Amino acid sequence: MNKKKLNLIPYIFIGPAVLLLFVFTFMPILLALVISFTNLNLTGLADFSTIDFIGFDNFVRLFQDDVFIQSIGNTLFYVIIGVPLAVGSSLIIALLLNFVSNWLSTFFRVIFYMPSVTNIVAIAVIWGFLYNQNYGLFNYLLSVINVGSVPWLEDPMIAKLSLILMAVWKSNGISMLIFLAALRSIPTIYYEAADIDGANRWQKFTKITLPSMSFATFFVVVTTLIGWFQFFEEPFVMTDGGPLNGTNSIALFIYQEGFQYNEFGYGAAASFVLFVIIIIATLIQFKFRNKDQTL
Predict the structure, then answer these.
(1) Residue at 95 is within a domain
(2) Which of 29, 188, 228, 259 has a Cα-to-Cα distance from 46 of 20 to 30 A?
(3) How many CB atoms lie within 10 A of CB 169?
């Protein structure tokens, strides 16, 4: 076999994966970008002649839409509150599991991971009962200590916090496993050297554990941030964006415009606004990461 044929072998192996990535990822993105500059709706799917190129009208209309502006505010609220809670609670769980025996750690890993693989509809049914204002468990427990019932899903602000609580509980499993794997990959020789030097637990945690987990933390933060910007399932199944669009997220807004109201061009424009927001947030994370590595 000559050298040219040998050079083609790697491309033959990665070819199918690249082709699938192009067909099912890049092409839909490009198609959605084209659609965002048109007035495509349900009528346009039946008769392409009714589709008109309208330029940036969809984007201009978006930022004049009070519902969309509110969904941006709601999404930022989810990100600002949800991301630190999700990352912090996952790290705490991983640290606790790292100190218990192997069989107990395995048992609790399964317990904490189960919500991550449980169907969101089943979760919504259970949490719907918990949050029920009249008969829910949470309000019953509050009544035991003579505290009035809380409108968990009826008040816009409390509803957002309720959805965040549910989403954090559901998402802890995956991040916890990543943190736990990072913890167990830290060489014990570092801690032994710290013990010889007389370091206490807090010093070992801040000087050895956290720096050694920097890449895992960075990965969890970036993926969690992207996930919370795409916050969709919880408001969709629990509140449908209500009350008064108080829990509506950008992702849910896109779904409503594209699949409930059949405004495909308008929904595609909203999806690209979300796409740009996610790209900017991710680039900022990488910028901070590179800055920390150069220090």
Answers:
(1) yes
(2) 29
(3) 17
For the chain, how many structural domains are there in total? 1
The predicted pLDDT at position 287 comes to 85
3-state secondary structure of 197: coil
Residue 73 lies in a domain: yes
Query: Roughly how many angstroms between the first and final C-alpha of the chain, as a whole number?
Result: 49
For residues 3-29, one letter each, b for 16 or more C-beta atoms within 10 angstroms of the residue's C-beta and e for the rest, the string is eeeeeeeeeeeeeeeeeeeeeeeeeee
Structural domain boundaries, residue 108 = 65-294
Encode pLDDT of 76-115 as tens digits: 999 999 999 999 999 999 999 988 877 888 888 888 899 9
In a domain, 41, yes or no: no
DSSP conformational letter for 192: H
Whether 192 contacts 162, CB under 8 Å: no
Rounded to the nearest 10°, the torsion over CA 191, 196, 202, 204 is -30
